[in-house]
Amino acid sequence: MEDTREIENLIHRYASLVDAGDFTAVGELFASGAFAGSGGVARGAAAVEQMLRSTVILYPDATPRTKHVTTNVSISVTGDTAASQAYFTVLQAVEGFPLQTIAAGTYRDTFSRSAGEWQFTERQAAVDLVGDVSHHLRAKGS
User: Fold this and answer.
1) Domain 3-130 has what CATH class?
2) Short-list 70, 136, 54, CA closest to 100
């Protein structure tokens, strides 16, 4: 498979796993990498999984009731390293909270290829637009 397609699939896998509430698998995407966001930097699988578990609200169906839509993906590959930038939009709907956009921003990612497989080196998530995230994120300290 073409390198850019493999990387794009990895970017979209992240969104699918978060929306499925599979934070263990999301963490595994960063086994040799880091996730940097408004809450700081989490390095490695266990730290990324813990960051998500401590901040994202899960519902009885074990999901956050979200859809992460990733668009405007731009990927540059140089040998066994790559960089990308993409927009993300997060939609959510829960009982008493109709479907709406709750956040939008930009991912800036770096990747490396090891043993023929692409992996995240770092994801920097910058939220540019924020809606009502009260049904998605735990209040600090709770």
Assistant:
1) alpha beta
2) 136
Q: Measure the CA–CA gap between 55 and 77, rounded to whole angstroms.
A: 33
Instruction: Judge contact between 16 and 106, C-beta under 8 A.
Output: no
d(CA 9, CA 28): 15
> Would the pTM of this model clear 0.85, i.e. be above it?
yes
Looking only at the bridges linking them, the beta strands covering 117-130 and 34-37 are parallel
CA dist., res. 48 & res. 14, Å (int): 12
Only one residue has tokens 């990747």, namely 111
Domain ranges of the chain: 3-130
Q: What are phi and psi of 53, to 5 degrees?
A: -60, -30
pLDDT in tens, the chain (142 residues): 699 999 999 999 999 999 999 999 999 999 999 999 988 999 999 999 999 999 999 999 999 999 999 999 999 999 999 999 999 999 999 999 999 999 999 999 999 999 999 999 999 999 999 999 999 999 875 5
First-residue to last-residue Cα distance in the chain: 44
